Amino acid sequence: MNNVLPPGQLETKKWPILHEGDAYKYDESTWSFKLFGAVKEEVTLDYNTVRNLPVTVSTVDMHCVTTWSKFDTTFEGIAFRDFVKLVELDEDVQFVKVYGFLNDDPYGYSANLPLKDLMGDDALFVYRWRDSSRDWADIRPKHGFPLRFIPPASFYLWKGTKWATAIEFLKEDKPGYWEERGYSMTANPFNEERFADKNNKPKGYFGADEWKDQ
Ligand SMILES: Nc1nc2c(c(=O)[nH]1)N[C@H]1C(S)=C(S)[C@@H](COP(=O)(O)O)O[C@H]1N2
Ligand SMILES: [Mo]
Q: Which domain of life is it from (predicted)?
């Protein structure tokens, strides 16, 4: 959207694939999406209900901590804020965790984010995409079909949970999957917030150039 390359990043026209475990295989009969945590009442939605929520189309930049950035991908999906409207939040909710599949565990992957940063068009759960060289298509299973979170460009892309299954509302910040493994809680690419401790790079850093082959 802004086409600004954060420090230490390189532009790619492709859309590399990176994740832990196997891609989730969508099964409509068992799939559900849950809103829980610091809410008056939990809500569980089936896929049809999710797809009947208001549609948002948004063009965003993506910045991966492994140093690739992709500008101007257009997504169709449901704005994060339209899910928030479905629950009554407790007072003082300031953070969320977005959960998704890790192998067979629907809550095995997660990423934490501040709620206040997710209320715009640039924070959305997506199922379709296009860019300047590709026409509209469903996102591939490996990119997170049937529902994948895309965070604002002010967060590295590991905050973008694939195969999303739930939003947990929180009064205090809690680390997600990579944050528990030494990655930054705040993860702003423009300040190069890659790791919790700059001088102590965590294991599992895809610092290699493998994305360049994709
Ligand atoms: N469920 C799930 N979502 C995930 C991951 C994962 O391992 N599991 N990896 C994250 C990381 S580290 C990155 S960089 C992006 C990569 O998204 P892409 O493969 O669509 O480019 O997905 C994020 N979402
Ligand atoms: Mo990543």
A: Bacteria
